[in-house]
Write a structure and sequence with these properties.
- It is built from 13 helices and twelve strands.
- An eight-stranded mixed β-sheet has the order 6-7-8-3-9-10-12-11, sandwiched between helices.
- The chain is α/β, with parallel strands linked by helices.
- The radius of gyration is 21 Å and the shape is globular.
- It starts with a strand and ends with a helix.
- Strand 4 (63-72) and strand 5 (75-76) form a beta hairpin.
- Helices cover 34% and strands 24% of the residues.
- It has one domain: Rossmann fold (3-Layer(aba) Sandwich).
- It binds iron/sulfur cluster.
Protein backbone atom coordinates (compact mmCIF):
# COMPACT_ATOMS: atom_id res chain seq x y z
CA UNK A 1 0.00 0.00 0.00
CA UNK A 2 1.13 3.54 -0.76
CA UNK A 3 2.34 5.53 2.24
CA UNK A 4 1.02 9.09 2.34
CA UNK A 5 2.47 10.20 5.67
CA UNK A 6 5.34 8.99 7.86
CA UNK A 7 5.82 10.17 11.43
CA UNK A 8 9.25 9.15 12.71
CA UNK A 9 10.40 9.38 16.33
CA UNK A 10 8.38 12.54 17.04
CA UNK A 11 9.09 14.33 20.32
CA UNK A 12 7.08 17.39 21.42
CA UNK A 13 7.60 19.36 24.63
CA UNK A 14 5.98 22.35 26.31
CA UNK A 15 7.97 24.78 28.46
CA UNK A 16 6.00 25.86 31.52
CA UNK A 17 6.84 27.66 34.75
CA UNK A 18 6.85 24.27 36.46
CA UNK A 19 9.34 22.77 33.97
CA UNK A 20 9.24 21.02 30.61
CA UNK A 21 6.26 18.75 29.86
CA UNK A 22 7.31 15.97 27.49
CA UNK A 23 3.92 15.44 25.87
CA UNK A 24 4.97 13.25 22.92
CA UNK A 25 7.98 10.96 23.40
CA UNK A 26 9.12 9.14 20.28
CA UNK A 27 5.96 8.51 18.29
CA UNK A 28 6.39 6.61 15.01
CA UNK A 29 3.67 5.55 12.57
CA UNK A 30 2.77 5.42 8.88
CA UNK A 31 -0.49 6.37 7.23
CA UNK A 32 -1.48 4.56 4.03
CA UNK A 33 -3.62 5.78 1.16
CA UNK A 34 -7.36 5.43 1.72
CA UNK A 35 -7.14 3.98 5.25
CA UNK A 36 -8.41 5.19 8.62
CA UNK A 37 -5.86 5.08 11.41
CA UNK A 38 -7.34 5.67 14.88
CA UNK A 39 -5.10 7.03 17.62
CA UNK A 40 -6.71 6.24 20.97
CA UNK A 41 -5.87 6.86 24.60
CA UNK A 42 -6.88 8.74 27.73
CA UNK A 43 -6.91 12.55 27.94
CA UNK A 44 -3.38 13.90 28.13
CA UNK A 45 -1.75 10.86 26.43
CA UNK A 46 -0.42 13.05 23.60
CA UNK A 47 -2.79 12.05 20.79
CA UNK A 48 -4.05 15.57 20.05
CA UNK A 49 -0.54 17.05 20.38
CA UNK A 50 0.63 14.48 17.80
CA UNK A 51 -2.09 15.49 15.34
CA UNK A 52 -1.53 19.20 15.91
CA UNK A 53 2.20 18.66 15.31
CA UNK A 54 1.42 17.16 11.88
CA UNK A 55 -0.48 20.37 11.08
CA UNK A 56 2.28 22.41 12.78
CA UNK A 57 -0.40 24.00 14.98
CA UNK A 58 1.53 23.67 18.24
CA UNK A 59 1.95 27.21 19.60
CA UNK A 60 5.67 27.96 19.83
CA UNK A 61 6.35 29.04 22.56
CA UNK A 62 5.50 27.22 24.80
CA UNK A 63 5.37 24.11 22.55
CA UNK A 64 8.19 22.78 20.38
CA UNK A 65 8.92 19.75 18.22
CA UNK A 66 12.22 18.76 19.79
CA UNK A 67 13.05 15.77 17.61
CA UNK A 68 11.81 13.58 14.78
CA UNK A 69 10.36 14.09 11.35
CA UNK A 70 6.97 14.13 9.63
CA UNK A 71 7.35 13.15 5.99
CA UNK A 72 4.67 14.11 3.47
CA UNK A 73 5.22 14.02 -0.29
CA UNK A 74 8.97 13.85 0.20
CA UNK A 75 9.04 16.91 2.47
CA UNK A 76 9.76 16.97 6.19
CA UNK A 77 6.95 19.13 7.58
CA UNK A 78 8.95 19.88 10.75
CA UNK A 79 11.51 21.74 8.62
CA UNK A 80 9.14 23.85 6.50
CA UNK A 81 8.73 27.61 6.91
CA UNK A 82 5.33 28.83 8.12
CA UNK A 83 4.54 30.23 4.64
CA UNK A 84 5.19 26.80 3.05
CA UNK A 85 3.11 25.12 5.74
CA UNK A 86 0.20 27.47 5.04
CA UNK A 87 -0.07 26.16 1.50
CA UNK A 88 -0.17 22.55 2.74
CA UNK A 89 -2.59 23.16 5.63
CA UNK A 90 -6.16 22.96 4.41
CA UNK A 91 -5.12 22.00 0.88
CA UNK A 92 -3.13 18.76 1.30
CA UNK A 93 -3.75 18.04 4.99
CA UNK A 94 -6.96 19.18 6.67
CA UNK A 95 -8.23 19.00 10.21
CA UNK A 96 -11.65 18.74 11.85
CA UNK A 97 -12.00 19.73 15.48
CA UNK A 98 -14.38 18.54 18.18
CA UNK A 99 -16.66 21.56 18.39
CA UNK A 100 -17.95 22.72 14.98
CA UNK A 101 -19.01 26.08 16.42
CA UNK A 102 -15.41 27.05 17.17
CA UNK A 103 -14.38 26.16 13.60
CA UNK A 104 -17.09 28.31 11.97
CA UNK A 105 -17.36 32.09 11.96
CA UNK A 106 -20.85 32.86 13.36
CA UNK A 107 -21.09 36.20 11.52
CA UNK A 108 -20.49 34.89 7.97
CA UNK A 109 -22.73 32.62 5.90
CA UNK A 110 -21.44 29.07 5.50
CA UNK A 111 -21.36 29.55 1.73
CA UNK A 112 -19.03 32.53 2.02
CA UNK A 113 -16.79 30.60 4.43
CA UNK A 114 -16.55 27.69 2.02
CA UNK A 115 -15.82 29.95 -0.96
CA UNK A 116 -13.11 31.83 0.99
CA UNK A 117 -11.49 28.50 1.93
CA UNK A 118 -11.40 27.42 -1.71
CA UNK A 119 -10.07 30.75 -3.02
CA UNK A 120 -7.26 30.70 -0.46
CA UNK A 121 -5.77 27.60 -2.07
CA UNK A 122 -7.04 27.52 -5.65
CA UNK A 123 -6.68 30.03 -8.50
CA UNK A 124 -10.23 29.81 -9.77
CA UNK A 125 -13.04 32.34 -10.17
CA UNK A 126 -15.56 33.04 -7.40
CA UNK A 127 -18.26 31.49 -9.57
CA UNK A 128 -16.28 28.26 -9.96
CA UNK A 129 -15.54 28.24 -6.22
CA UNK A 130 -19.28 28.51 -5.54
CA UNK A 131 -19.89 25.50 -7.75
CA UNK A 132 -17.29 23.47 -5.81
CA UNK A 133 -18.91 24.61 -2.53
CA UNK A 134 -22.35 23.39 -3.69
CA UNK A 135 -20.84 20.04 -4.66
CA UNK A 136 -19.18 19.71 -1.26
CA UNK A 137 -22.38 20.55 0.64
CA UNK A 138 -24.15 17.94 -1.45
CA UNK A 139 -21.38 15.39 -0.79
CA UNK A 140 -21.71 15.78 3.01
CA UNK A 141 -25.49 15.44 2.84
CA UNK A 142 -26.72 19.01 3.35
CA UNK A 143 -30.17 19.06 1.73
CA UNK A 144 -30.97 21.92 -0.64
CA UNK A 145 -27.37 23.21 -0.79
CA UNK A 146 -28.18 26.26 -2.97
CA UNK A 147 -30.56 27.59 -0.32
CA UNK A 148 -28.51 26.53 2.72
CA UNK A 149 -25.43 28.20 1.20
CA UNK A 150 -26.86 31.57 2.34
CA UNK A 151 -27.44 30.54 5.95
CA UNK A 152 -25.35 31.35 9.04
CA UNK A 153 -23.93 28.60 11.32
CA UNK A 154 -26.55 29.18 14.06
CA UNK A 155 -29.29 28.21 11.59
CA UNK A 156 -28.01 24.61 11.53
CA UNK A 157 -28.25 21.78 14.09
CA UNK A 158 -25.06 20.43 15.75
CA UNK A 159 -24.89 17.46 13.37
CA UNK A 160 -25.41 19.66 10.30
CA UNK A 161 -22.71 22.06 11.53
CA UNK A 162 -20.27 19.16 11.82
CA UNK A 163 -21.17 18.15 8.23
CA UNK A 164 -20.37 21.71 7.12
CA UNK A 165 -17.03 21.60 8.94
CA UNK A 166 -16.28 18.30 7.16
CA UNK A 167 -17.23 19.96 3.84
CA UNK A 168 -14.83 22.82 4.63
CA UNK A 169 -12.04 20.37 5.45
CA UNK A 170 -12.59 18.47 2.18
CA UNK A 171 -13.17 21.40 -0.09
CA UNK A 172 -9.61 21.39 -1.50
CA UNK A 173 -9.57 17.57 -1.82
CA UNK A 174 -6.83 16.91 0.77
CA UNK A 175 -4.88 13.65 0.85
CA UNK A 176 -4.96 13.50 4.63
CA UNK A 177 -7.85 14.38 6.93
CA UNK A 178 -7.20 14.59 10.66
CA UNK A 179 -10.36 14.35 12.75
CA UNK A 180 -9.79 15.22 16.42
CA UNK A 181 -12.70 13.84 18.49
CA UNK A 182 -15.11 14.69 15.63
CA UNK A 183 -18.18 13.15 17.25
CA UNK A 184 -17.61 13.82 20.96
CA UNK A 185 -19.92 16.85 21.04
CA UNK A 186 -22.74 15.03 19.20
CA UNK A 187 -25.49 12.76 20.48
CA UNK A 188 -25.30 9.06 19.65
CA UNK A 189 -27.64 8.96 16.63
CA UNK A 190 -25.97 11.95 14.98
CA UNK A 191 -22.58 10.41 15.83
CA UNK A 192 -23.54 7.29 13.85
CA UNK A 193 -24.56 9.43 10.87
CA UNK A 194 -21.26 11.35 10.92
CA UNK A 195 -19.26 8.09 11.10
CA UNK A 196 -21.20 6.74 8.11
CA UNK A 197 -20.43 9.98 6.33
CA UNK A 198 -16.68 9.50 6.97
CA UNK A 199 -16.83 6.00 5.45
CA UNK A 200 -18.84 7.24 2.48
CA UNK A 201 -16.50 10.17 1.80
CA UNK A 202 -13.44 7.94 2.08
CA UNK A 203 -14.93 5.55 -0.49
CA UNK A 204 -15.68 8.42 -2.87
CA UNK A 205 -12.49 10.47 -2.46
CA UNK A 206 -9.82 7.99 -1.27
CA UNK A 207 -8.76 10.37 1.52
CA UNK A 208 -6.59 8.92 4.32
CA UNK A 209 -7.99 9.67 7.77
CA UNK A 210 -6.29 9.99 11.15
CA UNK A 211 -9.01 9.72 13.77
CA UNK A 212 -8.12 10.97 17.25
CA UNK A 213 -10.50 9.68 19.90
CA UNK A 214 -10.89 8.25 23.38
CA UNK A 215 -14.06 6.43 22.29
CA UNK A 216 -13.45 2.79 21.38
CA UNK A 217 -17.03 2.49 20.12
CA UNK A 218 -16.21 5.04 17.41
CA UNK A 219 -12.95 3.26 16.62
CA UNK A 220 -14.73 -0.09 16.22
CA UNK A 221 -16.99 1.40 13.56
CA UNK A 222 -14.48 3.12 11.29
CA UNK A 223 -10.81 2.29 11.96
CA UNK A 224 -8.70 0.02 9.75
CA UNK A 225 -5.71 0.21 12.08
CA UNK A 226 -5.42 1.41 15.69
CA UNK A 227 -2.51 2.97 17.60
CA UNK A 228 -2.90 3.01 21.38
CA UNK A 229 -1.10 5.90 23.08
CA UNK A 230 -0.11 6.13 26.71
CA UNK A 231 2.02 8.80 28.38
CA UNK A 232 3.28 10.22 25.08
CA UNK A 233 4.13 6.88 23.43
CA UNK A 234 2.42 4.42 21.12
CA UNK A 235 2.42 1.32 23.34
CA UNK A 236 0.54 -0.97 20.96
CA UNK A 237 -0.62 -0.79 17.35
CA UNK A 238 -2.32 -3.21 15.02
CA UNK A 239 -5.27 -3.85 12.77
CA UNK A 240 -8.73 -3.29 14.25
CA UNK A 241 -9.20 -7.05 14.60
CA UNK A 242 -5.83 -7.51 16.33
CA UNK A 243 -6.44 -4.72 18.84
CA UNK A 244 -10.04 -5.69 19.64
CA UNK A 245 -9.62 -9.49 19.64
CA UNK A 246 -5.93 -10.08 20.49
CA UNK A 247 -4.82 -7.08 22.57
CA UNK A 248 -1.46 -7.72 24.21
CA UNK A 249 -0.56 -4.60 26.18
CA UNK A 250 -2.14 -4.51 29.67
CA UNK A 251 -3.17 -0.89 29.03
CA UNK A 252 -5.01 -1.83 25.80
CA UNK A 253 -6.73 -4.66 27.68
CA UNK A 254 -7.65 -2.19 30.44
CA UNK A 255 -9.14 0.24 27.91
CA UNK A 256 -11.23 -2.53 26.34
CA UNK A 257 -12.42 -3.76 29.74
CA UNK A 258 -13.58 -0.28 30.67
CA UNK A 259 -16.05 0.19 27.79
CA UNK A 260 -19.59 -1.25 27.74
CA UNK A 261 -19.99 -4.38 25.52
CA UNK A 262 -23.46 -5.34 24.32
CA UNK A 263 -22.16 -8.69 23.06
CA UNK A 264 -21.02 -9.80 26.54
CA UNK A 265 -24.07 -10.22 28.72
CA UNK A 266 -23.51 -9.39 32.37
CA UNK A 267 -19.88 -8.34 31.80
CA UNK A 268 -18.69 -5.87 34.42
CA UNK A 269 -16.91 -2.66 33.51
CA UNK A 270 -13.46 -2.57 35.08
CA UNK A 271 -11.87 0.87 35.33
CA UNK A 272 -8.08 1.22 35.11
CA UNK A 273 -6.99 2.12 38.63
CA UNK A 274 -4.52 4.95 39.21
CA UNK A 275 -3.47 7.87 37.04
CA UNK A 276 -0.95 8.36 34.21
CA UNK A 277 2.59 9.42 35.19
CA UNK A 278 3.74 12.99 35.51
CA UNK A 279 5.16 14.00 32.13
CA UNK A 280 7.40 16.67 33.70
CA UNK A 281 9.69 13.81 34.62
CA UNK A 282 8.46 10.66 32.88
CA UNK A 283 9.73 7.36 34.27
CA UNK A 284 12.73 5.71 32.65
CA UNK A 285 10.91 2.38 32.52
CA UNK A 286 7.43 1.47 31.33
CA UNK A 287 5.12 4.41 32.15
CA UNK A 288 2.27 1.99 32.94
CA UNK A 289 4.20 0.24 35.73
CA UNK A 290 2.36 1.90 38.63
CA UNK A 291 -1.04 0.84 37.23
CA UNK A 292 -0.13 -2.55 35.79
CA UNK A 293 -1.06 -5.73 37.66
CA UNK A 294 1.57 -7.68 35.67
CA UNK A 295 4.44 -5.29 36.43
CA UNK A 296 7.85 -6.95 37.00
CA UNK A 297 11.02 -5.53 38.44
CA UNK A 298 12.44 -4.83 35.01
CA UNK A 299 9.39 -2.75 34.02
CA UNK A 300 10.31 0.03 36.40
CA UNK A 301 13.96 0.06 35.34
CA UNK A 302 13.93 0.02 31.54
CA UNK A 303 11.48 0.82 28.76
CA UNK A 304 10.50 -2.40 26.92
CA UNK A 305 11.71 -3.15 23.40
CA UNK A 306 9.15 -3.18 20.62
CA UNK A 307 7.92 -6.70 19.87
CA UNK A 308 6.49 -7.34 16.40
CA UNK A 309 3.66 -9.89 16.51
CA UNK A 310 2.54 -9.55 12.87
CA UNK A 311 3.07 -7.16 9.97
CA UNK A 312 0.84 -4.51 11.60
CA UNK A 313 0.75 -5.59 15.23
CA UNK A 314 3.48 -4.45 17.61
CA UNK A 315 3.60 -3.89 21.33
CA UNK A 316 5.96 -2.29 23.87
CA UNK A 317 5.68 -4.60 26.87
CA UNK A 318 8.20 -6.77 28.70
CA UNK A 319 5.63 -9.57 28.90
CA UNK A 320 6.07 -10.07 25.14
CA UNK A 321 9.83 -9.90 25.08
CA UNK A 322 11.78 -13.11 25.39
CA UNK A 323 14.81 -11.09 26.51
CA UNK A 324 12.95 -9.86 29.60
CA UNK A 325 14.68 -12.37 31.84
CA UNK A 326 18.14 -11.39 30.53
CA UNK A 327 17.18 -7.77 30.91
CA UNK A 328 16.26 -8.47 34.52
CA UNK A 329 19.80 -9.47 35.23
CA UNK A 330 21.60 -7.04 32.94
CA UNK A 331 19.88 -3.81 34.01
CA UNK A 332 21.50 -2.31 37.07
FE1 LIG B 1 3.00 -3.94 32.59
FE2 LIG B 1 5.62 -4.27 32.52
FE3 LIG B 1 4.21 -4.59 30.31
FE4 LIG B 1 4.57 -2.17 31.33
S1 LIG B 1 6.14 -3.51 30.49
S2 LIG B 1 2.68 -2.99 30.59
S3 LIG B 1 4.50 -2.61 33.51
S4 LIG B 1 4.11 -5.82 32.16
Amino acid sequence: MEKVLEVIDLHVSFKTYGGEVKAVRGVTFDLYKGETLAIVGESGCGKSVTSQSIMRLIPNPPGRITNGSILFKGKDLTKLKETQMRSIRGADISMIFQDPMTALNPTITIGEQLVEGILQHKSISRQEAKKVAFEMLDLVGIPNPHERFKHHPHQFSGGMRQRIVIAMALVCKPEVLIADEPTTALDVTIQAQILDLFKDIQKKTGVSIILITHDLGVVAQVADRIAVMYAGKIVEAGSRREIFYQPQHPYTKGLLNSVPRLDLEGAELVPIAGTPPDLFSPPAGCPFTARCSYAMEVCDRAYPFKTHLSQDHHVDCWLQDERAMNRLTSVK
